[in-house]
Design brief:
alpha/beta, Isopropylmalate Dehydrogenase, 12-stranded mixed sheet, 18% strand
Amino acid sequence: MKPILGITMGDAAGIGPEIIVKALAAKEIYEIARPVVFGDKKIMERAIGIVGGDLKCQTVQEPSLAGKTYGTIDVVDLDNLPLDLPFAQVDGRAGKAAYEYIEKAVGYALKAEIHAIVTAPLNKEALNLGGCHYPGHTEILGALSGQKDYSMMLVGGALKVIHVTTHVPLRKACDLVKKDRVLRVIRLANDTLKMMGIVKPRIAVAGLNPHSGEHGLFGTEDELEITPAVDEAKAMGMDVTGPVPPDTVFYQAAIRERFDIVVVMYHDQGHIPIKVLGFETGVNVTVGLPFIRTSVDHGTAFDIAGKGIADGKSMTESLLLGAKMAKVKFADL
């Protein structure tokens, strides 16, 4: 049996619907999974018209009925947007609708009626204008599932990273680098990589400060918070190295292939190398939730929305990874 992938449509003023159409034009997705879109059917039909091709849409009442026929995009239709919603404009209606797609998908995921959620991008300003006051997808998913201890993992090219902190100011991020949190993220990395099929994950933990603090000369967090977390993870049987100076760790992971993943301390420490190495194919994975969530690692791209030229590779990779992880998590499928 194939896993059911719930795809949330994202902000309809951006490229979300278009990249979903492009990804679902690939027969390989239907060979390994059953996709269903949580969105607005008429907006998806508009996207098909923009992108071109022979695809069509149909409404399904339940995800269990979806994804059986290549060439037909099945939609759980919330019918919550006007057809003439303008492209490339921050619109509270689109932000509110994007939240509602996520909310609907999470309800099914918590009941295991879909086996992974794959999200198209939303616009944070539109989200807030629509009355949904969250920094982004990760925080929404945490709130809807009642989870507080989660993390963001990025997969791009030959590199994987997972974050100790994400959407907080850099000054605050330094204060949040604590032993318990670092250890928790190391364990999340270990568990998630096993779900991706890596039997014995090799984990590098990046330092926070230049040269990992140089024994306290450039900051004490590496010595007092990160090193004890690494030592405890080793005592638990995990293959962990660190803290590794952040100016060399990504080279060792992506080029020398010494590590399967790097635990990073703050948002840009992880995002910059991922986007350099795999901008078009990057995948965002939220770990620590009670369900699988993968996502494109880019935004709504208002500058090209509605033109049919958006690249669907990241959405395709997100669907493939979501299906792969679901087959491990739901071994009885």
